[in-house]
Structures are given as C-alpha cells and as structure tokens.
Amino acid sequence: MKRFVSIVLCCLLALTAFAGCVSAPEADDGRLNVIATVYSEYDWALNIAQGTENADLELLLENGVDMHSFQPTADDIIRISSCDVFIYVGGESDKWVDDVLKQAVNKDMIVVNLMDVLGDAAKEEETVEGMQPGEEDEDEAAYDEHIWLSLRNAELCCRAIGKAFEDADAENAETYRKNTEAYVKKLDELDKTYADSLGKAKYDTLIFGDRFPFRYLTDDYNLKYYAAFAGCSADSEASFDTITFLSDKLNELGLPAILTIEGSDGKIADSIIRTAHSDAEILTVNSIQRESAESGKTNGGYLGIMNSNLGVLLKALGA
Questions:
Q1: Matching CATH topology for 7-21+29-117+143-190 and 202-316?
Q2: 310-315: long-range contacts (C-beta < 8 A, 24 or more apart)?
Q3: What superfamily would CATH give domain 7-21+29-117+143-190?
Q4: Chain mean position to CA 9
Q5: CB of 226 within 8 A of CB of 207?
Q6: In CATH, what class is 202-316?
Q7: Which of 76, 117, 205, 283 is at a distance of 20 to 30 A from 33, taking alpha carbons?
Q8: Is the dihedral of CA 231, 234, 238, 239 positive or negative?
Q9: For the chain, what are the domain ranges?
Q10: Is the distance from CB of 60 to CB of 35 less than 8 angstroms?
C-alpha cells in the first residue's frame, strides 16, 4: 500500500511540475497566505491572525477527510508550493509532506512541523492491556499524532504558529503577539478547569470501545484507560478476546459509560455492554480529526469542542 501511495504521489508531483511550466505563480499581493492541514491548527491560526485583515487561511483536510488516509491532489500541491506559512502535524500520516515541500515555489515559506515543536514531549503510541495489537513495524517507533488533544501541547503549538506569523508578516507582528498571548491564556484557563474537575471525579479510568486518540489528554490529567484499538489503528472489527477483556473491565470498575469517538457506529461499544450485561451508556467524545471549517465553527471552535469533551469525560467518570 505504501508503495502504491508513493507512486501516486510521484505522479502528482510530475503533474505539479508540468503545471508550473505552463502557468506562472500569481503575483504576490502582500497578504499572508497560510495553509493548515487539520482543523485544530486552522482554528489556532484563525485566533492568532484575527484583527489583522491581512491573512488568508485555508484548511487543507476539509469535508471530514481523515488525516490517516489523506493524500494531496495536484491542486493541493500547487497551493502548498506557493503559500507563506504551512502548518502540519508531522507524524506518520504526513510522510507525503517532505516530497511536496521539495517542490515549493516559495523558497521563503515558513514551515511549522508541530511534532518538531513538541520535541521530547511527543509520545510514542502504546498498546495497553487488552488492546488489539496493530500491524505496525516493531522496529520503528510510531509517535501518537493526536497532539492537539492536549491543551498543554496546544499552548506550545500556538506560540510556534504565532512566531511564524510574526516572522512572515513583520508589519502585523505586534497583533499576532498579543493575539497569541490572549489565546494561550484561554487554553491555560481551560487546562486548569480540566485538572480541577477531573481530579474530583468518582473514577479515574476510561473505557473506549473504539480507537483511542486521547493519550496526550489522559496523561495530562493522570487518567487510566482501556481501549479496543490504538489511535491510528485502521482496524474496525474487535476480536472476541478484546470484547471480553473490555466487558470484564467494565464490570470490574463499575463505570457508568463507555466512550466512542465521532463517526463511530457504536457496534463495538454496544457489544462490550451486552457482553458485560451492563446498563452503561455509550457516550461520544470529539477527537477533532474530521472537523471542517464550517462544522468546527458551529461547534464553538477548538476551545468549544474541548470544553464539550470535558463534559462528556466527567459524565463517563461519574462526576
């Protein structure tokens, strides 16, 4: 599969090179052209750029596209090639980025790799007890890409994005700086609310009848978890052993709910509950992986979604 993706990408890059031969890049209009790959980055950038009226922001993965399966079109490659600031996660799903950036027309482009921003704070994916093992290469460390699900990571990422905007658009640098500080303050306040509220919950363990992209969040607040699959797993069918293990844990811990992420059909969670003969609820938390610009705005942006997630987590933990 990876070889096939590489062949497709090579073809797209060839098309891009051809497109560059037949059409010159648009003239620089002085505006800051920013492309962010996933919604969280896009919303952070919106908040940092507000009030300048000088930034054009684009969300690359629109319409519910999953980052784990995304591959850029020729048009995507052309747009990225000429943007001023490009923001991406930098995990396994973004392997395509290296080849695309080699084709960049704008040699002054500022690239923000958020995994690099985190540095040692980036965490490897883990397989906890009862979790169905994936098929990843055991000789290569796989880092958890869902870095935005930590408010503390978000603070680091926003500062890096703000600095990129300042460097790319010195005329509006002070506005970007002030906006960054104001937004980071909101992130910090919500982080403190999370810590205080979750610390008072009846339980300290979550069960996910689904993929588990929330490792950064659970580590931040010293929560334990059990799940059917790791966060980047492509599996959708849980084994008998996985269902049995999670149903036993549900009974052992006496939890009031099992969690799923957005887009789940709930079948695995339902099987766990039925196997356990439990009356637990199925609740959904938003991993912010499939948000479009429009749906994200409707849901209150990154902060609104994370605040809603807190309510779901508290209910799942008996608070």
A1: yes
A2: 310/190, 310/193, 310/194, 310/197, 310/198, 312/259, 312/283, 312/284, 312/285, 313/198, 313/206, 313/285, 314/197, 314/198, 314/201, 315/256, 315/257, 315/281, 315/283
A3: Nitrogenase molybdenum iron protein domain (3.40.50.1980)
A4: 23
A5: yes
A6: alpha beta
A7: 117
A8: negative
A9: 7-21+29-117+143-190, 202-316
A10: yes
> For residue 146, what are the contacts with CB-CB under 8 A and spacing of at least 6?
213, 214, 215, 216, 231, 287, 289
Tokens of 123: 């965490």
What is residue 71's DSSP assignment? -
Q: Which helix (H) or strand (E) holds 303?
A: helix 301-316
For residue 208, give the 3-state DSSP assignment: strand
Q: Write the DSSP assignment of 180-201 as a string of letters.
A: HHHHHHHHHHHHHHHHHHHHTS
The predicted-structure confidence for 125-138, as pLDDT tens digits, reads as follows: 888 999 987 665 45
Express each pLDDT in 211-266 by its tens digit. 999 999 999 999 999 999 886 665 668 899 999 999 999 999 999 999 999 989 99
- Encoded tokens for 304: 């609104």
